[in-house]
Amino acid sequence: MKILLVGGSGFLGAWVGRFLHINQCLARIFDPNKPDSEWHRLSGIRADATDWVAGDVSKKSELDDAIRDCEGVINLAGLLTPECSQNPVRGAEVNLIGAINVFQGALKHGLKKVAYTSSIGVYGPDHAEFPEPTTHYGSFKLASEGVARAFYEEHGLQCGYCTPGMLMRSYRFLQENPNPTEDEIRTGISGNLCRCTGYQNIIKAVQSAATKLQDNETASA
């Protein structure tokens, strides 16, 4: 089995690569940076046996090329808190849009095995019961974890042209109006154009996300 390891050239990627190698899975590393000697030492994978594809997870076409002929994908790509604070736009491109590109690639190629990392950063500094991120990093992780899951379940990921804007607008909209009606959702996302479906699946995805947020609030009360 060949697994695409997105953002796999770092410390965590080395240990995941080692796990895959021990379990006789082939790892294709998709990362702007080539695995170094320490990565090879930790992973146990020889340099001459490493399948590395240079690429940027925020660029859908590059990820789409790398995911071909893989049977699963693990997304480890992400900028951490300091980088996201210094450059929030780039943080969103990697941590949120990159995650959506992974989901879209998996759907497009019919992959049944998808794993991605989240973070305790989705919680605020006061408690770890209900997500209340206070950093760009935590907000991007929470958006990826919640809204992307809803889009995935409702198949709201169509051609991908409108997805980044729809995700960011939906995330903000649900912060402003956590229990919207269908008409309010239509109005809330009206500034974002979709050329595929008449918005029905996107509206269903936002409704699903709203329900899950309400359920989480009830459970934490």
Q: In words, what does this structure look like?
A:
The protein has nine helices and five strands. It is globular and about 55 Å long. The protein has two domains: 1-117, NAD(P)-binding Rossmann-like Domain (Rossmann fold, 3-Layer(aba) Sandwich), CATH 3.40.50; 119-215, [2Fe-2S]-binding domain (DNA polymerase, domain 1), CATH 1.10.150.120. Strand 1 (2-6), helix 1 (11-22) and strand 2 form a beta-alpha-beta unit. The protein has a five-stranded parallel sheet with strand order 3-2-1-4-5, sandwiched between helices. It has helices at residues 11-22, 37-43, 60-67, 81-86, 88-108, 136-154, 163-176, 182-188, 200-220, and strands spanning 2-6, 26-30, 51-53, 72-75, 113-116. The model has no long low-confidence stretch (mean pLDDT 84). With 221 residues, it is α/β, with parallel strands linked by helices. 52% of the residues lie in helices and 10% in strands.
